[in-house]
Amino acid sequence: MLAHMTNGTADFLQKLIDKHSGKRIWLMHAESSSLAYYEDQAKSIFVSGRDYDILIKNGEIQAEGYVVMNNIPVTEEGQPVFEHQFQNRRHDMEKMPGFQAFRLLKPKKGNTYVVFTQWRSVQDFENWKTSDHFKQAHKNTSVKPPDYYADRPFLTAYHMTVEDDN
User: Fold this and answer.
1) Mean pLDDT on 48-74
2) Which fold has domain 2-160?
3) Rounded distance, CA 46 to CA 78, Å?
4) How confident is the model at residue 92 (pLDDT cuts 50, 70, 90)?
5) Which pLDDT belongs to residue 138?
6) Gene3D superfamilies per the record (predicted)?
């Protein structure tokens, strides 16, 4: 399964979604940008989008919620180690109240993986970050990033947009 995403203005992305009404495309908004995301086996409909292999898929993406994407650049030689760590991780996040979906996305081009999580609300995500489960999952994380990181990871966060039926 593949994941496809692209950024653009909300109006442009909505027109793109309307044009491809046969696909389930989620529209998300941040403070200064919008993102369209969908999962499919076929080639992307996005001209300037990003394509990913879905390595891990837990939960189903919901129409409403809060999405956090941890963008992690990984060296080519570090990719097997990085993927192995996720394949063998504990699944405590999925037990947290408000958890909706998790995806580990491997880029088809480039080196930046995306750890995609969806939560019912910002507060549910914040509760996860302060939970004992989070501390346990990140207990081996030091101030210095692992050697297989090609650059510093960065977060992007979005609120899902619910389509109006007007």
Assistant:
1) 97
2) Alpha-Beta Plaits (3.30.70)
3) 29
4) confident
5) 66
6) 3.30.70.100
